[in-house]
């Protein structure tokens, strides 16, 4: 179903994210007919370029990031693309931009720029009369560096826009399987009765990456895995796993429940944290070389044991881990159910609890570890098998998976904030994260080194072993 006609102004249009994700995403929505023929995308950046110069750049990016494009469709798409040079923090270009916008269509301003620019751009959109009561403003992460800076950003945005106009992106919420987690929990009756401390032993949330800091050293070294991944993506995954059923699938009902989870997160003891940094490869570089800071104490890996202090989850640890340069790219949420309380099958094989694994990437799907009778010879023995549902197989491998950005940008145009973070949610996440970081900074903790291509530092293994549990294997 096509969305309403719109003018989307893309700040930072020549930047990496715009070229790699946002513009290709819009192209794909155009190709399937969701972006109407009279929609317009107005790229802006400081570079002096005309429409054709920008179109040529987008065409080039498309070859790299959307290589399956159809030439005639791309030509029609590019006819919808324009460019206005704008000085984000000066006064040049704003009036021209204002004149180019249509009064009677949905208006969205996508700030694909560093957070320092958010308040200044919001102010100019307001002062030059570009922002209407119905227009939307979209901002990317990082949304602040700590609670104080996040509050300042919120204040800067709210000085010019209402909360219902502000779309804070966490692209993990746009991932297919992340939304499927909500469908799994709230569109089935099988799981909900078991989804609590009585039946769940613990939960493991893993986001493992094979990439390193990839030319983003200056940003990353100031952030580390805790700010870059945990404060946003992993906390979001935790929220969707732990939240109470909202009364409706509406933006505020869902976000109210997520905020309650974040507010229930308990402080994390220093002994429940394992931080790591990838060391130099044989003959190659390590983290400190990649970020150009030989004294860096920043973590490229972190594992935490987290508790959600509420009735449903009392005593159930949530183990979170994420890191770069690990053995495999693998993201999943694994819910470990308790072992059966009594066995009538002594000495005939493993008797484990069931494990429900929601695989986010790659190969999205759901598996349920189940114990069955081993069909082999040798009498009655038990074995574990996985009931495995790969979405690609179940739903047809030829359906191109929608990228998170495609879905999220269309939600902006539709005016649906369900998959975007509300201001209080971001602040609550920082309020939980800040003291954890402050703790290790004050103690001067050093991250332990781990090998590239491994599954992380020893300390992270110990964090589990100590509790008599094991991480699921990466790769
Ligand atoms: C970004 C982080 O938000 O998410 C990156 O800044 C990280 O460091 C990326 O690599 C991971 O996203 P995805 O979609 O590839 O899992």
């Amino acid at each position: 179903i096509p969305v309403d006609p719109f003018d989307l102004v893309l700040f930072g249009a020549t930047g990496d994210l715009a070229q790699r994700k946002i513009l290709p995403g819009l192209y794909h929505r155009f190709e399937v007919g969701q972006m109407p023929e009279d929609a317009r995308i107005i790229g802006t950046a400081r570079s002096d370029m005309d429409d054709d110069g920008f179109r040529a750049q987008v065409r080039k990016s498309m070859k790299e990031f959307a290589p399956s494009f159809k030439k005639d469709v791309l030509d029609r798409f590019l006819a919808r693309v324009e460019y206005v040079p704008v000085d984000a923090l000066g006064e040049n270009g704003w009036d021209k931009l204002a004149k180019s916008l249509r009064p009677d269509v949905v208006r969205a301003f996508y700030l694909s720029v560093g957070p320092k620019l958010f308040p200044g751009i919001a102010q100019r959109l307001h002062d030059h009369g570009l922002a209407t009561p119905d227009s939307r403003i979209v901002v990317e992460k990082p949304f602040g560096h700590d609670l104080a800076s996040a509050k300042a950003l919120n204040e800067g945005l709210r000085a010019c826009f209402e909360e219902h106009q502000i779309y804070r992106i966490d692209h993990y919420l746009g991932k297919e399987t992340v939304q499927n987690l909500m469908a799994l929990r709230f569109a089935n009756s099988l799981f909900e009765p078991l989804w609590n401390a009585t039946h769940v032993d613990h939960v493991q949330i893993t986001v493992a990456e094979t990439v390193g800091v990839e030319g983003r050293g200056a940003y990353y070294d100031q952030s580390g895995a805790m700010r870059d991944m945990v404060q946003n993506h992993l906390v979001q995954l935790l929220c969707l796993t732990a939240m109470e059923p909202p009364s409706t699938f509406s933006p505020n009902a869902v976000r109210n429940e997520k905020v309650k989870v974040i507010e229930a997160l308990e402080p994390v003891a220093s002994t429940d944290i394992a931080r790591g940094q990838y060391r130099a490869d044989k003959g190659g570089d390590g983290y400190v070389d990649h970020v150009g800071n030989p004294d860096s104490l920043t973590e490229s890996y972190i594992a935490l044991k987290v508790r959600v202090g509420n009735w449903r989850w009392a005593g159930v640890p949530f183990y979170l881990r994420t890191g770069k340069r690990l053995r495999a790219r693998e993201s999943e949420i694994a819910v470990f159910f308790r072992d059966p309380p009594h066995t009538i099958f002594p000495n005939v094989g493993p008797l484990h609890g069931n494990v429900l694994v929601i695989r986010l990437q790659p190969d999205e799907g759901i598996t349920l570890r189940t114990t069955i009778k081993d069909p082999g010879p040798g009498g009655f023995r038990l074995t574990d098998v996985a009931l495995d549902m790969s979405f690609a197989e179940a739903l047809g491998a030829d359906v191109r998976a929608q990228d998170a950005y495609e879905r999220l940008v269309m939600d902006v145009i539709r005016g649906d904030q369900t998959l975007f973070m509300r201001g209080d949610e971001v602040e609550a996440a920082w309020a939980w994260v800040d003291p954890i970081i402050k703790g290790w900074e004050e103690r001067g903790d050093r991250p332990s080194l781990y090998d590239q291509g491994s599954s992380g530092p020893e300390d992270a293994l110990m964090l589990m072993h100590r509790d008599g549990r094991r991480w699921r294997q990466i790769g």
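The pocket of 6-O-phosphono-beta-D-glucopyranose is lined by residues 141, 209, 211, 228 (CB under 6 Å). Residues 217-242 form the longest helix (26 residues).
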